[in-house]
Each structure stands twice: as structure tokens, then as C-alpha cells.
């Protein structure tokens, strides 16, 4: 069995497997638009990961809508219809915190002595017993709705109610006479409608349902005079991101297909070949999606963007086949032509797959998807060509390559080689490459995640306006505390809260939220109980109050029992309440250690905060953004190492066929193209990042195809030169369009590939010139 027959049989088997996989996976294909899914997760067992997962779950599903209008009467009448419209959609549910709001009040009952605000500690220390009784009597007699026996028994002085109110986070939200929540913004009333998504905002199907429900509500509100709708929440950023990804997928895919159609019709002048060219494209993309769905469960939209761009690479196999057939003309014999094309096609696939699969070693989940999707797609595309084309294109073409096209290709090739002739010295090329690499080591770099995410400025402005008007909003940075016991943890939280309070008063940050808001430390509780005992119980405040209110002996005894000094409230006892109220500060136990997190609001001087907290044991100021930046820097360095490793592996692979000098000349043109492309991008004023480096793996995988085909062409230079030129155009059309992306990461990737591929095409003939020079 010859090599072509073996390749066709293996191709047929591969296609059968891919067809079965498509039938199985594609009907249940799921998409993911979460940009953070591109990056590796932190260790899910670490305390930081658990805190950030809790924060993410708390905030990413929250949606807040503000409805403003000129006519408040009409607005109040319309508001119930809006609420019903939104909650009819299964995409929204009532916020969990709203339905569990009474849990904390129930837990506090019976703990009057332990739970005292600072204001109440001052009162008990400074007021006389008669003054305390007078104050309590006025409060009970002037209480809105009258005095209830239950409130008198459970909270005779009102200290517990004041503590409960103090535990609520500060907010600018008020209630109107009908109980509707509103805020005042620009001297106008905006009604607040908080909702919670019934799932992840990155779920595309959920996004679509939420979009429709929000559009119906906004349409109903728009009928009011002066209607205005403000909104905030991760949902709106994911909606914008999904829309942008769809638009870019459409642009890249449509641009690539249109360019391919025009090129094929212009050069080959055959509608049949045009249709045939799309067979490996379609099978390649569908197979890539199916394999990605099998391996990862869901396909990231960025992988889809590159899947759309994959057509510009997969078409190369068809172009080489069509060009070789047309250049051979009436002498075409399918078996002989396919046999000549087999080595460069397989070598080109192998080097491309090495380039793509190198993405996986970087550890980026998103890039791993791109690697798997692209590799599976290219293998399937080539398998389709090898299996189908020898039979479908067995006949010689009716028309040979037009004379004008032959002259054009030969003329451009001569001019191309004439320009490159002075560079056709391996030693000279290697020296230039080393000098460029040395210069690039000094080029500016950027590893900022904020630079790579550019959300819609209008959304950012609206969210800032809403959050400031609501008087809420935590930053990404937080303080993590750990301790060997809950008692020690509460002591450390108390120290940290005192220092943060000083910073808040000094305008270093706007606020913070710690467990001390809802539970004093054991030491503070003990001091509170001692103060309550001496200033209230022993001083006879309750007895005097009961006499003034003419309580029965039974009611007075109940009041005494309810106000008796209680035991210390532990975090263990509070934990079930904290679990039922995800809006409260976080507390958990992991491997015997007790943890809590203090969220920060608008921290302006992180170094000052870090210095202020120094000296408190078990405390860490965590900045996820800075950590991600460091991670990106690490992966930029890793990508550089992977690039060098990929060149080394490919060089060893090719050395067996061409020898060391020959292999060096095959890899030098794409290597030089990569270095020059980075130098040009740096000269344009753009800092280099990890996505530029990842793009160079693709420049290697595609660019080396050009030198391989020229190296293997021998006397078939005409068809090879035509195919490489067409391949460059299609690749530039597909990946080059990514440079237009509004997403900084995709833009960096696309721009690097665009410049790198053009340079790789320009430098590819060096492999032929160097060979000629060596022989001479």
C-alpha cells in the first residue's frame, strides 16, 4: 500500500469519526461569553478563591433598574406593571436577600445586653437611670403605630432596634407612601427595582430572555412623559460583549468568505471549484466545534471568533490542490499530483498543529479551546481534501493556467527574489534575528487586564452614576483575615475595623463592610453585658420603667427574662444566618482555619491601607486586578518560552528531512517575520502583551507552510507560488480582520498575525534563494 492510499484510508476513518461526533455534540452546543473564562482559575481550594467566588456570586447576578419620569402619579401606577412584566420572565427572581431580611432580627432577639452600639454605650455610661427611663418612656409612647407588648418585652429601651438598624449597609434609598423604593437623582425621583438573575449572566440563552423582558418593560415605561431608565449589573456588560462578539464573528466570517469567493472565481473561474472549496471549510469548522464541545463542555465566543477566522487557513489545502492542478493543465494525473502534494501538505499540517497546540501549554483555558478547535478543524479539512479531491478532481482541467496569470506570477516571483537576493545568507539572517530579539527585550510591555478590557464607556458612565446615587458599591480589592479560632478572628476583625474607620475618616476610602457590623467581638460583648448589668439591671431602670407603664408582675418578669444578660454570641451560632444572607460579610472555616473578608468601597490609596493594617496578624490586602496583571506577565514570559520551544521542536522535526542547515532556512523566514512584526508594533507606540506573543505561535504555524511548500516544490514553482499568494490573501482577510476588533486582546492578536503573515510571505522565498546560493 503506497503512502497516498494509506493517507486516504486514514482520512476516511477520521471523517467518519468526526461525522458521528458532530451528530452527537452540535445539537446541544453551548456558548460561553465570560471574558474571565479565558484565564486560568485560581486554586479553587484557596481562601482567596472562595472569597472571590462568593463575591462574584453575590454581584454578578444582581440587576438594578432605576425608572424616572416627570409625572410621579403615573409613574407609581405604571411601576407594578413593570415589576410583573420582568418577573413573568423565568430569567429573573426575587433577590434572596430580600426574602431573608428578617433572619438577622430573629437571631438578635434576646441578646439586648450583648449587642450595643457605640451611641448606646455612651448613653449607658453617661446618663442617669432616671434619664434612661425618661428616654425609653418617650420612645415607647411616641412610637409610630403605637406601643406593642412584644416590642416592650423584647426591647424595652430600644437599644436592640438601634443595633439592628446600624447593621444595615448605608444607602440613599427611601420609601414613598406606597412602600416603593426610590432615590433622588438630579432633583428627580427614580424608582428602584432590584432583581436577581436566575442563573449566570454569561449564559447566552438567559441573556436573550432577559433582553426581551427588559425591552418590554422599557417600552412600557417609555410612554410616560420624561421617561428615563438607568441600569447597572454584570448582565448589561455581558449583553454588550455578546453582541460585539456576534458582530465580529459576522464580520470576520463574512469578510473571509467574500474574499475567498472573489479570489476563487477570479483565479480559477469555476463555480464548481468554488463549491468544492467550501466542503473542507464546513467540515473543518463543524468538526472543530464538535471536538471543543466534547472536551470543554461549552465553546467560548472568542474560540468562535477564531473558528470563523479558521476558514482563511483551512482554504490553503484546497488552494494548493487547485493551483497544482491548474498549473499542470492537460497533463494532470490525480494520483501523481496528489502524491507530490502529500508531503508538504502533511508537513504543513504538522507544523500548524504544533503551533496551535502550543497554546495549550500556556495554561489559558480560552486559548486551549482555540488550540483544540483549530487543530481538529485543520486535520478534518486536510482529511476532506485527501479523501475527496483525488476522486472529484481526477479529470484534467479543461483550461490550463491563463497566460496572463502565468506571466503575473512569474514576474512577481522574479521581482520578489530580486529584492530578497541581498538577504539570502543564513548567517546574515541569523544575526539580524538576534539583534531584533535583543532590541525587543527592551521594548515596552503591558500586562494590565484593564487595558485588555474596554467596556462600553456609556455603560461605565451609567453604572458609576447609579452606584453613586444608590450610595453603594464595593471595589474588587478586599481584606482577607484568618485565625486559628472564631474568637481570635473576631478580635482581629475588630482591630482591622478600627484602623479602617480611621482611614475612612481621612478619605482614604469611602467605606468598608466587616463582620463587626453585625456582631461585636467576644471581648466587646462581655464589656457590653457588664455595662448593661450595672447601668440597667442593677440601677433599677427596668423596674422603674415597668412601674411608670403600670405593667403587671407577669409582664415585668417577662421583660426581665428577655433582658437578662445572655451568653456570648459565637460566629458558629451566627453562621447559618450568614449562609442565608449572602449580602452579609463573609465567614467560613477551611482546613481548621477561620476566615473572613472585609470588602472595601472606593479605596484610593492601597499602599496607605496596607501600611495601616500592618501589625495585625493573619491579615492580607488582596488586589485581584494586580494579581491578574502579574499572572498575565507570567504567561507573557511563558508564551515567549513556548514560542522558542515550538521553533526548536519544528527544527528537530524538519532536520530529519532537510538536515540542520536546511531546517534552519525553513524556520528562519517566519522567525524573522515574527521579530520584525513585534518591532513594527512597538514602533507604532503599542506596548507588547501576552496576546502578541500568542499570535506569534500562529505566525509560525502558518508562515512555515510557505517555506515548506517552496522547499518541496522543486520544478512545480508556478503553482506553488500562486497557491502561497492566494493563501496569504485569504489568511490576511480572515485573521487580519481581527485587528479591527474593539476587544483589545483580539485586536492585539489580529494585528500581530496580520503583519506577521505578510512578512512571512515576503520572506518565504529566502528558503529557495539560500539553497541556490549554497549550491553555487
Any chance you could write out the topology, listing elements then pairs?
Elements: H1 3-25, E1 31-32, H2 47-59, E2 62-68, H3 72-88, E3 92-93, H4 96-99, H5 103-108, H6 118-126, H7 129-141, H8 149-154, H9 159-167, E4 174-175, E5 181-184, E6 189-197, H10 204-221, E7 228-232, H11 234-268, H12 271-296, E8 299-300, H13 301-309, H14 311-328, H15 334-361, H16 365-392, H17 403-420, H18 426-440, H19 449-452, H20 457-470, E9 478-483, H21 486-505, E10 511-513, H22 522-537, H23 541-548, H24 553-562, H25 571-580, E11 586-590, E12 593-601, H26 606-613, E13 619-622, H27 624-683, H28 690-713, H29 717-735, H30 744-763, H31 766-775
Parallel strand pairs: 1-8
Antiparallel strand pairs: 2-6, 2-7, 3-6, 4-5, 5-6, 9-12, 9-13, 10-12, 11-12
Helix pairs in contact: 1-12, 1-16, 3-10, 7-23, 10-11, 11-13, 11-14, 11-29, 12-14, 12-16, 13-16, 14-15, 14-16, 14-29, 15-16, 15-27, 15-28, 18-27, 27-28, 27-30, 27-31, 28-29, 28-30, 29-30
InterPro entries: MMPL_dom (IPR004869), Mycobact_MmpL (IPR050545)
Domain Membrane transport protein MMPL: 159-400
Protein name: MMPL family transporter
| Shape designation | elongated
How much is the radius of gyration in Å? 35 Å
Helix content: 55-70%
Residues in β-strands, percent: 5-15%
Q: Work out the number of β strands.
A: 13
Q: Total helix count?
A: 31
- State the end-to-end distance: 39 Å
Mean of all residue-level pLDDT scores: 82
Low-confidence parts = 96-100
Q: Main β-sheet, in a few words?
A: 6 strands, antiparallel
**By helix and strand content, what is the structural category?**
alpha+beta
Amino acid at each position: 500500500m503506497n503512502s497516498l492510499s494509506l493517507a486516504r484510508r486514514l482520512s476516511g476513518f477520521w471523517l467518519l469519526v468526526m461525522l458521528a461526533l458532530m451528530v452527537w455534540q452540535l445539537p446541544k452546543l453551548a456558548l460561553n461569553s465570560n471574558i474571565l473564562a479565558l484565564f486560568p482559575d485560581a486554586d479553587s481550594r484557596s481562601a482567596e478563591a472562595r472569597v472571590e467566588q462568593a463575591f462574584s456570586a453575590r454581584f454578578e447576578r444582581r440587576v438594578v433598574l432605576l425608572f424616572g419620569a416627570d409625572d410621579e402619579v403615573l409613574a407609581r401606577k405604571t411601576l407594578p406593571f413593570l415589576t410583573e412584566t420582568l418577573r413573568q420572565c423565568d430569567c429573573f427572581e426575587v433577590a434572596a436577600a430580600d426574602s431573608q431580611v428578617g433572619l438577622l432580627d430573629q437571631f438578635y432577639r434576646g441578646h439586648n445586653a450583648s449587642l450595643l452600639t457605640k451611641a448606646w454605650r455612651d448613653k449607658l455610661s453617661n446618663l442617669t437611670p432616671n434619664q434612661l427611663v425618661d428616654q425609653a418612656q418617650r420612645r415607647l409612647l411616641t412610637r409610630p403605630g403605637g406601643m406593642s407588648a412584644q416590642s416592650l418585652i423584647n426591647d424595652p429601651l430600644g437599644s436592640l432596634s438601634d443595633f439592628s438598624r446600624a447593621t444595615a449597609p448605608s444607602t440613599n434609598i427611601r420609601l414613598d407612601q406606597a412602600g416603593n423604593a426610590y432615590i433622588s437623582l438630579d432633583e428627580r425621583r427614580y424608582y428602584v427595582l432590584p432583581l436577581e438573575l436566575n442563573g449566570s449572566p454569561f449564559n447566552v440563552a438567559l441573556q436573550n430572555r432577559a433582553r426581551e423582558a427588559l425591552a418590554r418593560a422599557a417600552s412600557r415605561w417609555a410612554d410616560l412623559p420624561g421617561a428615563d431608565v438607568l441600569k447597572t449589573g454584570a448582565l448589561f456588560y455581558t449583553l454588550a460583549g455578546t453582541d460585539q462578539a456576534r458582530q465580529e464573528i459576522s464580520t470576520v466570517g463574512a469578510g473571509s468568505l467574500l474574499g475567498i469567493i472573489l479570489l476563487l472565481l477570479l483565479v480559477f473561474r469555476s463555480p464548481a471549484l468554488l463549491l468544492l472549496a467550501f466542503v473542507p471549510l464546513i467540515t473543518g469548522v463543524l468538526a472543530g466545534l464538535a471536538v471543543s464541545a466534547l472536551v470543554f463542555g461549552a465553546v467560548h465566543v472568542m474560540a468562535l471568533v477564531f473558528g470563523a477566522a479558521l476558514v482563511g487557513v483551512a482554504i490553503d489545502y484546497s488552494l494548493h490542490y487547485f493551483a497544482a492542478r491548474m498549473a499542470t493543465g492537460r497533463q494532470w494525473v490525480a494520483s501523481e499530483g496528489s502524491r507530490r502534494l502529500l508531503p508538504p501538505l502533511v508537513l504543513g499540517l504538522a507544523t500548524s498543529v504544533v503551533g496551535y497546540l502550543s497554546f495549550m501549554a500556556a495554561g489559558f483555558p480560552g486559548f486551549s479551546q482555540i488550540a483544540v478547535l483549530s487543530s481538529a478543524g485543520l486535520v478534518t479539512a486536510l482529511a476532506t481534501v485527501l479523501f475527496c479531491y483525488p476522486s472529484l478532481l481526477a479529470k484534467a482541467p479543461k483550461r490550463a493556467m491563463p497566460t496572463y496569470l502565468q506571466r503575473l506570477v512569474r514576474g512577481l516571483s522574479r521581482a520578489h527574489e530580486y529584492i530578497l537576493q541581498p538577504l539570502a545568507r543564513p548567517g546574515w539572517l541569523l544575526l539580524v534575528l538576534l539583534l531584533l530579539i535583543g532590541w525587543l527585550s527592551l521594548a515596552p510591555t503591558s500586562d494590565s487586564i484593564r487595558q485588555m478590557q474596554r467596556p462600553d464607556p456609556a455603560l461605565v458612565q451609567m453604572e458609576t452614576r447609579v452606584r453613586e446615587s444608590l450610595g453603594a458599591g464595593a471595589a474588587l480589592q478586599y481584606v482577607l483575615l484568618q485565625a486559628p479560632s472564631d474568637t481570635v478572628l473576631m478580635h482581629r476583625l475588630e482591630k482591622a475595623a478600627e484602623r479602617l474607620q480611621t482611614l475612612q475618616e481621612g478619605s482614604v476610602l469611602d467605606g468598608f463592610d466587616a463582620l463587626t457590623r453585625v456582631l461585636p467581638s467576644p471581648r466587646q460583648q462581655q464589656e457590653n453585658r457588664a455595662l448593661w448589668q450595672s447601668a440597667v439591671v442593677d440601677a433599677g431602670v427596668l423596674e422603674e420603667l415597668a412601674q411608670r407603664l403600670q405593667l403587671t408582675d407577669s409582664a415585668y418578669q417577662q421583660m426581665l427574662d428577655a433582658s437578662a444578660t445572655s451568653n456570648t454570641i459565637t460566629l458558629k451560632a451566627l453562621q447559618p444566618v450568614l449562609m442565608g444572607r449572602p449580602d452579609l460579610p463573609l465567614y467560613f472555616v477551611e482546613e481548621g482555619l477561620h476566615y473572613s473578608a472585609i470588602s472595601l468601597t472606593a479605596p484610593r490609596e492601597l499602599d496607605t491601607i496596607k501600611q495601616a493594617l500592618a501589625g495585625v496578624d493573619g491579615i492580607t490586602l488582596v488586589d485581584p486586578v494586580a494579581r491578574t496583571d502579574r499572572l498575565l506577565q507570567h504567561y507573557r514570559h511563558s508564551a515567549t518560552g513556548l514560542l522558542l520551544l515550538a521553533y526548536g521542536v519544528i527544527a528537530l522535526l524538519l532536520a530529519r528531512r532537510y538536515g540542520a542547515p536546511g531546517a534552519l532556512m525553513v524556520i528562519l523566514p517566519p522567525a524573522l517575520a515574527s521579530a520584525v512584526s513585534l518591532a513594527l508594533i512597538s514602533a507604532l507606540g503599542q506596548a507588547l502583551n501576552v496576546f502578541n506573543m500568542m499570535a506569534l505561535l500562529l505566525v509560525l504555524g502558518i508562515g512555515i507552510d510557505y517555506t515548506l511548500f517552496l522547499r518541496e516544490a522543486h520544478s512545480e514553482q508556478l503553482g506553488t507560488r500562486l497557491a502561497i499568494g492566494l493563501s496569504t490573501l485569504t489568511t490576511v482577510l480572515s485573521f487580519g480582520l481581527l485587528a479591527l476588533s474593539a476587544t483589545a486582546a483580539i485586536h492585539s492578536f489580529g494585528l500581530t498575525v496580520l503583519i506577521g503573515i505578510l512578512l512571512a510571505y515576503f520572506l518565504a522565498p529566502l528558503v529557495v534563494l539560500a539553497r541556490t546560493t549554497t549550491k553555487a
